[in-house]
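Lab notebook page, bench 4
Experiment: in silico fold of construct C2
Operator: M.H.
Input chain length: 510 residues
Purpose: comparison with the prior construct
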Amino acid sequence: MRLPANTLISPCVQNAAVMDAPHSLVLYEVNTRIRLRRFARDMGRFRATLDDIPDTWIAGLASCGFDWVYLMGVWRTGEAGRRVSRSNEGWLRGYRDLLPDLGDEDICGSPFAITGYSLHPDLGEAGALARFRDRLHHEGLLLMLDFVPNHTAPDHPWVQDHPDYYIHGTEEDLAREPENFILVDLPGDPAVFAHGRDPYTGGWPDTLQLDYGNPALMETMIAEVREIAGRCDGVRCDMAMLVLPEVFRQTWGRDMEPFWPGVIEKVKRERPDFAFMAEAYWDLEWTLQQQGFDYTYDKRLYDRLREGGGRAVQEHLRADFEYQQKSVRFLENHDEDRAAAAFPPDRHRAAAVLTYLSPGLRFFHQGQFTGRKKPVPVHLCREPDEPADPAVEEFYRGLSACLRIPAFRDGAWRLLDCAPAWEENPSHDGYIAFTREREEERYIVVANYTPDRGQCYVRLPWDGFAGKTVRLRDLMGPAEYERDEGSLLSPGLYLDMPGWGYHVFEVVGK
């Protein structure tokens, strides 16, 4: 399948049993400010809004098989966040390395230093977001937006109107930890506020930390999410684990009532199909799923793929199937290195096949399909020019075609065991193999996820080919084989593959 040129994306162990998979969705993340800046340049204009996004671009995303469009960074931000982004010397050095001709207009400030959940005026007037959502719906696409639960910008109206919504410190705290606290002018006397942070790093200087020990703040944040839910079809919850009671207590030494179960239940009572996706780390994904999240980032799979260990990847895919189906599988996003830079080309392809043909929500990032290598800090609203990599584009065209096959969307999934090809040959340890099937459609995905050539037998789990010759045709390469059904059941399909080799076999009886 050729991607339309105007899309810019040219975009509890149970493995022994067959797992019936609900529809596996595909999401495309758009850096809204950067994308609109590029649209404006293409149009020969100074500025573009959501209303200026061409219908053909939206239709192109739908034709590529995406279900969700995640617009990252649409909410209102303020001068305080921009001022920090434009004055932090460490950040500025990184910006200049990326954009040697950097100007102040390229530094918009973090889209996660929010001053309110209304559309940023640079992106259009108030009704533009609703119109864009309607246009997505017309093409069968859903809209995901951000929710930032942990903190706000320093110039959020609550700072002046409801200072009790925030965690405060003392002058001693400020003197001892100036990176974690800041003196803020209030109508009465100045007060020391805490910057937003997690338990392991210093404060984020363009944020102030919300106090979930305050029941009034909890109720206000629930109301915020319910308001956001009226404008989109799902939310990506930034650093969702930071407002788990145990993490909040570890960070701030104070107790809070659980937040996520209540807010998710209230929203889903009004919008049963509304989706909650958690950015999650520190092995807290299952905890967040148990609290009601539909999807959680699968950072552990990403890390294991990046480390290059086939056995570790295989063990990860033995996890409880419900957990996997709710996992967000990705090779890059706005917080990670670009996949084309983080993975050598051969490993990149093998990792993508395993990531995106496994169960779960498939998450792709703007620029991933063209092989961009330079990550852009979220504080910037311009990206450097990079030539597209034809080899990366060609690979993702093939992978996108596979993702449009019904068996890879909602077919049953089963992880297969890989047996030694002969005694004293341990190379089967690097293999990962699984099947996807739907009605009469059957596929085997296999990868030798190690740098070295290896051999193994994979026993096919189907016995419906009695007396037939079985054809295996690789959908991602030229390989095509014919085998008799008996040999595929025992000893199995023999594979001899180079390091990082992979196949996506269509299996048909003749």
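Observations: The longest strand covers residues 431-438. The longest helix spans residues 215-229.
Next step: discuss at group meeting.
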